[in-house]
Structure prediction request, 117 residues.
Amino acid sequence: MHPRNREIFDKSWAQLFYEYVFCRIDEKPFPVLYDPVMGKPNFPVNILIALEYIKHMKHWTDEDLFEVFRFNSQVSYALGIRTVVGLNMAERTLYYFRERVYCYCMENPDAEDILFS
Prediction:
């Protein structure tokens, strides 16, 4: 990244989000959402959670969120993605993750909150 652009990113919300939110997302509680036989999710859980936070922080729709995830450098920076290629995510990946969190919370009302623990 050009040093001038890096300086701009370092002063933006993206750097603060990356440092104080993204880097502190603990993925340890989330294996309970997945079948031990089938394995881990096909996409990083910390990015899925961070996208939800950003969506609500910016008051974006899902459509907005998918677009900025694909094309917005600040969002990529906030998620720790430092390459131009980035990651590809199908929309259903986020929807399935939401469903798993919801079902887990409904089936385990006395369990510790996995999103805000």
